[in-house]
Amino acid sequence: MTALAGRSTRFPELAGLVASRVPGRCLPAPFYTDPAIHDADVAGIFARHWIFVATEPEVSEPGDYVTVEIGPYSVIIVRDDDEQIRAWHNVCRHRGARILPEANGSVGNIVCGYHKWTYSPDGVLLSAGEQPPDFDKGCFGLKPVQLRNVAGLIYLCLADDPPADFDEVIPRIEPYLAPHRLEHTKVAAQVDLVEPGNWKLVMENNRECYHCDGHPELLCSFFPTYGYEPDDMPARLQPAFDRFLQADLDLRNACDERGMPHALIEELSGRPTGFRIQREALDGAGESFTRDGRAACQRLLADFDTPRLGRMTMHQQPNVWLHLLSDHAVTFSVLPIAADQTLVRTTWLVHEDAVEGEDYDVAALTDVWRATNEQDRGFVRLAQQGVSSPAYEPGPYSASEYQVEQFCAWYIERMTQFVQS
Predict the structure, then answer these.
(1) Closest by CA position to 241, among listed 270, 281, 274, 209
(2) CATH class, range 50-158
(3) How far apart are CA 30 and CA 10, in angstroms?
(4) Which of 31, 41, 90, 370 is the most exposed place for a label (fewest CB within 10 A)?
């Protein structure tokens, strides 16, 4: 276990705060506002669990790298000369300097800019300048970080002993991801958005559609009935619900014909790697996340023979949601910066042979989620301002917010284990 991940004694008041949480209600304010709780979240959640950080196309060629900041940690993800994707702590073994300060790039070898200690992409120290005759370079390779590549999605775990359940989760989600062949895509666009709120507020906002009338662009492809239970459906939405039932039946038949799984799997609490995955129909033309529902990229992923394959959607604790469509994929990674700041990285992927300007237009491809992300940024800002008020007290969740409750329950379970460690 990493040093930070094991020091739950740094947070003596956390145990009482965790125990005070009332199920079915929002978290107490300090969970969103206290810098000490932010540090505990990094130590107890982000340094102990599998974290989604990148996609395989971001390191498509040998020497390509990205760096990821997780609290005080910085990690290099690089593809080596043998095409293996590896992860290393971004810390020189000489005097600890940050080796690669850039967010991404391409290298032959990994060279520290301070004293030019040089490492191969597979972490071996190649050169250390002037050293005594008995200096053993083999003892000073880069420190590894555990990495898993799941059908083109790259996860890291900073802990020496990662949660074992991830090995059980992978074979359940991989059949949903694999048909889209993300390893044969390329990055069409990537946007980093710093949201002025706690990372848990960002995840909670994503886990409910109670507020979805604030996303007019998104509702062009989402059914207006999304978030309603059939028994609670307003009469005015019955035609849309009937349309959804037919679209859902058509989608299930299309998936069955192509051997693509579509059923809902939902295990959001209990296990360390809680997740929710399924394939769902889209409204409008039913092809993609665009204002008319038509495909945004004419070169379909994986040589699909039809654009009407709905959206394969996945949410995974603690920091990822994504949508894989017939024509493109969009992933979202959430990383904490401070108690009231969170990085949301959105990445759009298209077929590796798709040609910009011919097969797709970047503005059209990214339009819906750029607008939706900005709207969510505003909602998160309002939430952070509200929970920071002395007048705030945790309110009750509605039935449609059950996934928010599941997220908070998962978080409390993990933090309870942390304070007991």
Answers:
(1) 281
(2) mainly beta
(3) 16
(4) 370
Gap between the Cα atoms of 215 and 218, Å rounded: 5
Domain ranges of the chain: 50-158, 167-420
CATH code that applies to domain 167-420: 3.90.380.10
Q: Torsions phi, psi of 358, nearest 5?
A: -110, -55
pLDDT tens figures, 276-304: 999 999 988 999 999 999 999 999 999 89
Closest CA to 385 of 196, 193, 194: 196
Q: How many CA atoms are closer than 13 Å to the CA of 44, on its beta-carbon side? A: 25
What pLDDT, in 10s, does the model give residues 231-281? 777 888 788 888 888 999 999 999 999 999 999 999 987 889 999 999 999
φ/ψ of residue 243, rounded to 5: -65, -40
Distances (CA, A) of 228 to 277, 360, 367, 396: 18, 34, 26, 18
Distance of alpha carbon 320 from alpha carbon 154, whole angstroms: 11
DSSP 373: H
Q: What is the pTM of this model?
A: 0.94
